[in-house]
Design a protein that fits this description.
Elements lengths: L3 H27 L5 H23 L14 E5 L4 E5 L6 H14 L12 E13 L2 E13 L9 E4 L1 H4 L12
Parallel strand pairs: 2-3
Antiparallel strand pairs: 1-2, 3-4, 4-5
Helix pairs in contact: 1-2
């Protein structure tokens, strides 16, 4: 993953290229070259690129990692107040709580539509197969977090233990 210092270095090289292109564009106007107006466009684009890379170098990339969280996939997210994630059917209660917290950080965005509700609801679901040819969807937990505060200290995590108990239990090894 690119770091902020790498973006700053790319911005520096792009800005130098933009200055060289600006000099070349000035020379093209003095000598009345046929490509002088194309050079204006290339120079302008290079300047915009340099400013964008500089902005990426200034804004820190922060990604919260919650220990114990398992991989999940987002199965529904309309960009408003509801999202659904899928977790593996082997998830434990501790892993589920960590995964819900991870999803709350990952799915947070300033651009979500609130539609009168200031909370984002993220539900975790999994699929179990009680018998061959039959699939059952189980909602095993949910988290409610603020749409306004990035680091929400008052996240409400709720694990549905009755549905979590329906998940297949890992086979325990024989004690020796």
């Amino acid at each position: 993953m690119l770091t902020t210092s790498a973006f700053l270095q790319y911005a520096q090289w792009t800005a130098i290229a933009a200055l060289v292109l600006a000099g070349l564009t000035g020379l093209a106007f003095l000598l009345k070259w046929g490509i002088r107006f194309r050079l204006v466009g290339v120079t302008g684009f290079t300047l915009v690129l340099a400013v964008g890379l500089f902005a990426l170098g200034v804004v820190p990339f922060t990604r919260v990692r919650i220990p114990g969280a398992v991989r999940f996939s987002t199965v529904y997210d309309a960009g408003s107040t509801l999202a659904v994630i899928a977790v593996p059917p082997t998830v434990t209660e501790e892993q589920l709580e960590a995964t819900l917290k991870q999803a709350a950080y990952d799915l947070y965005s300033y651009g979500r539509l609130s539609r009168g509700d200031e909370k984002l609801l993220i539900r975790a679901r999994t699929i179990v197969h009680p018998e061959p040819g039959l699939s059952q969807l189980l909602v095993v937990g949910e988290v409610r977090r603020s749409l306004e505060v990035r680091d929400d200290e008052e996240m409400a995590i709720h694990v549905f233990t009755e549905n979590l108990a329906k998940l297949p239990q890992p086979e325990s090894s024989a004690a020796s």
